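Format notes (please read before filing issues)

Several people have asked whether sequences and structure tokens are stored in separate files. They are not. Every record keeps both together, in the order shown below: the sequence lines, then the token lines. Line labels are part of the format and must not be stripped during preprocessing.
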Amino acid sequence: MATAMNSRTDSRTESAPGRLALAGVSAIGVTFGFARYGYGLFLPELRSEFGLSVSLVGLIGSATYAGYLAALLLVGGLVARFGPRPLVLVGGLSAAVGMGLVALAQGPGLLITGLVLAGTSSGWAWAPYSDAVDRMVPAGRREQVMGTIASGTAFAVVIAGPLALLALLVPGTGWRYVWLLFTLAALAASAYNARVLPRGAIRTTARAGRPAYRRSALPLLLTAVLYGLVGAVYWSFAVEAISGAAGTGAAGTGAAGTGSATAPLFWSLMGAAGTAGALTGHAVTRYGLRRVHMGLFTGIAVAVALLGLAPGSLPAVAASALLYGPCFMAGSGVLAVWSYRVFPEQPSAGFSVTVFFLGLGTIAGPALVGTYAETYGLRAAFLLTAGVAALALICAPRRVFPVSSPREKG
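Then the structure lines:
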């Protein structure tokens, strides 16, 4: 009997990384792929429904990221006190309530309230998984699991694109039904995470709270700012740029023709390509953090530039999606792995600092670029943003060391 009990215990221990990865993918999928990035996918419909200008669109986008940043300010200290489970659940419920408000909104006020509340969800949910992985996953598999969890955004984007296509079948109100489906998905993900994530605070002798400053964190934090800025601009305005060019370029023939389907297809292609981000941990293990970082930001810069150069060209739009999807999705995994190496004794607190700097970029990006685009156009704004993405190449990790090396603690 003791042998059987030990066997069941071992089985649960061995399955814990897989269950945690699935829970993380579902939570990151709904909080990022739906609650945060769904705004960009349905931006043409929201602009038409609520009469939003490009500059106002940028301000709303920045406001949603401000809510995200506000949640991050609280996560680092709270996760040490309460553990990751309640914070992830707060994130899931924020996503559900916020997206529900968006689906039911009859005016800009309720729309903005729902978008900002939904935007906080990813701030609550992402960083706590660093501690959950630290508790539930053996040391040799942690970076692979972190990379897999970060790819949840891509899987959600894959789902969101076809749903946006179906929404076209119900003109005027179809997008509302999609956001109600997003709400149900957030509730389901929250329920699964409630079953999987460990209860209680983390028992550790490490000093809780704010992680100590270290010079090795500077390239990481600068990368996070640039990554956040570029990503927020792309997610907020890519569909708008493609839809705006669809009437005159090769991408389509107008709002009622092929052009109206181009944006959802672009979104689906980007998400499908982005599922390769699940291999981030394996790529870092094989090629090293520096090489992966350089490759990803080169790909992101080219992807953004393509939408600035030819947003009305189907080949350019497809190439942008195929490049941006895996590079951006893997970028979040790189930040997670890099942060874990820089702050190994306080993974969630350290990652919260990293994502806080990412949040600074996300807040600045949409508002600044929206204002710039109002004067110079979205194409010029995307070319400027591509240049910003290229700046991240000078922030690549300077040291290359194997995952198993003790130096990853330094």
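For reference, the curators noted about this record: The chain has one domain: 2-199+214-409. The CA atoms of residues 268 and 277 lie 15 Å apart.
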